[in-house]
Amino acid sequence: MSANLANLESHLATRSYVEGYTPSQADVVVFKAISSAPDSSAYPHVSRWFNHIKSYTAEFDSLPGSSQAGEAFLGGAAPAAEKKEEEDDDDVDLFGSDDEEDAEAERIKAERVAAYNAKKAAKPKTVAKSVVTFEVKPWDDETDMAKLEECVRSIEMPGLVWGASKLVPIGYGIRKLQITLVVEDELVSLDELQEKVAEFDEYVQSSDVAAMQNQLFARLRSTMSTEEWRLYGFAPVPRDPEVLFKDHPTASGPNPKQDLFVADDFPLPDTPLVREVRAFAQKELDEQTFNHSNRVFVYGTALVKTHFPEWKFNETPSAVETYALSCLLHDIGTAEKFLATTYMSFEFKGAIVARDLILSLGGPEPEADSVCDAIIRHQDIFVKGGNITVVGQILQLATILDNVGLRANLIHPRLIETTTAKFPRKGWSEHFAQVIEKELTLKPWCHTSTFEIPNWKAGVQSNFATDVRGNDVMRPFD
């Protein structure tokens, strides 16, 4: 039986998989129905999905889930998937229900995805361009440089735009022409350009490409040097907390500042994207991990408000939303369906799941990238040197505070009391220690295997699970 590629193309335009957020038997049944790789020009989304699922061929038999959702795309059986979702909300629809509130959430979700698709469709294809600094040397100091430049600029090629120029002394009264040009990478061969320049041998001795930079990279650097990088928490801060807090005016010394906050001072942002991601996380995570994710949001936002007001983090709604998404999804890789179905460490798998989820819900790509980056790096706390994003640093400070009690003196005890009352730990220390040990057993190469952190009570080195279990600060609340 063949697959209905047209319907599948439409379905995958906003999704990474046929059903859910990881490969499943629904993907397998559709993949097997496609005899060969689809035409990428006619079915770009199907082609992208096909090549991705192909990498799981050896694992097809062990992938989770049912093939039922995939069967809707076989043999021209068009969009029965949506009808099925309406008939069986509990099995397929992560966010819907029969009450009016969930119906409104579905409407908002549909509008958000439609707006994302419209924006994506209207976006012109990105043309790769490079900015080139080109140098042309004359024969001697008597060469007519004005004529030389005129000859060079007379060269016309599709995708070539000449820019500013200047004459640069190189010695003995000789000057070379240094000229800037922008080229479309697919259309302009710099070797061919140099051959054309060499044809003016009455004036030209040689030419060289002095510098070349991709225009997209140049634009990114320009953007990232402005306040725009703060929108999704991309500002760089020291990665090592010891460097971050060294001689800090409110966080160092025996009596650091402790603002009197309570958990209700830091509610999750009430945005459509956060609501949808929260529903997904609550469905996929066990109660202890879901509560931990919420505590991390409270502790992190409180830490920043007290000790790093200059970051202006709490005053930037998009950055707070990005952090909320990072908190809700930072441990999604520990969910059973993800932890035991990938060779990757749970942070890396979770980061991929998080990015795919946010994009599928119509979230901005920079926000999805920021969440992905923060989740990958949120357990780099014991690596020295370098920088990390603001969101990544807040996430790692808050998770290590909740997991081992490190730097709990930077927040008020009342905040810990109200936060653990609102989001109970329910034996979180032992629960998470067991998750760590389970992953180490399944994947002895995993990232957590690198953790040998100082046990400040005994003065010895210990593994991460040991210190999670030894969290004396949070023990009264476990």
UniProtKB/TrEMBL annotation:
<dbReference type="GO" id="GO:0005085">
    <property type="term" value="F:guanyl-nucleotide exchange factor activity"/>
</dbReference>
<dbReference type="InterPro" id="IPR006674">
    <property type="entry name" value="HD_domain"/>
</dbReference>
<dbReference type="InterPro" id="IPR049720">
    <property type="entry name" value="EF1B_bsu/dsu"/>
</dbReference>
<keyword id="KW-0251">Elongation factor</keyword>
<dbReference type="Pfam" id="PF01966">
    <property type="entry name" value="HD"/>
</dbReference>
<comment type="similarity">
    <text>Belongs to the EF-1-beta/EF-1-delta family.</text>
</comment>
<feature type="region of interest" description="Disordered">
    <location>
        <begin position="76"/>
        <end position="101"/>
    </location>
</feature>
<protein>
    <recommendedName>
        <fullName>HD domain-containing protein</fullName>
    </recommendedName>
</protein>
<keyword id="KW-0648">Protein biosynthesis</keyword>
<feature type="domain" description="HD">
    <location>
        <begin position="289"/>
        <end position="404"/>
    </location>
</feature>
<dbReference type="InterPro" id="IPR014038">
    <property type="entry name" value="EF1B_bsu/dsu_GNE"/>
</dbReference>
<dbReference type="GO" id="GO:0003746">
    <property type="term" value="F:translation elongation factor activity"/>
</dbReference>
<dbReference type="InterPro" id="IPR036282">
    <property type="entry name" value="Glutathione-S-Trfase_C_sf"/>
</dbReference>
<dbReference type="Pfam" id="PF10587">
    <property type="entry name" value="EF-1_beta_acid"/>
</dbReference>
<dbReference type="InterPro" id="IPR001326">
    <property type="entry name" value="Transl_elong_EF1B_B/D_CS"/>
</dbReference>
<dbReference type="GO" id="GO:0005829">
    <property type="term" value="C:cytosol"/>
</dbReference>
<dbReference type="InterPro" id="IPR017771">
    <property type="entry name" value="Cyanamide_hydratase_HD"/>
</dbReference>
<dbReference type="InterPro" id="IPR036219">
    <property type="entry name" value="eEF-1beta-like_sf"/>
</dbReference>
<dbReference type="GO" id="GO:0005853">
    <property type="term" value="C:eukaryotic translation elongation factor 1 complex"/>
</dbReference>
<dbReference type="InterPro" id="IPR018940">
    <property type="entry name" value="EF-1_beta_acid_region_euk"/>
</dbReference>
<dbReference type="InterPro" id="IPR014717">
    <property type="entry name" value="Transl_elong_EF1B/ribsomal_bS6"/>
</dbReference>
<dbReference type="Pfam" id="PF00736">
    <property type="entry name" value="EF1_GNE"/>
</dbReference>
<dbReference type="InterPro" id="IPR003607">
    <property type="entry name" value="HD/PDEase_dom"/>
</dbReference>
<feature type="compositionally biased region" description="Acidic residues">
    <location>
        <begin position="85"/>
        <end position="101"/>
    </location>
</feature>
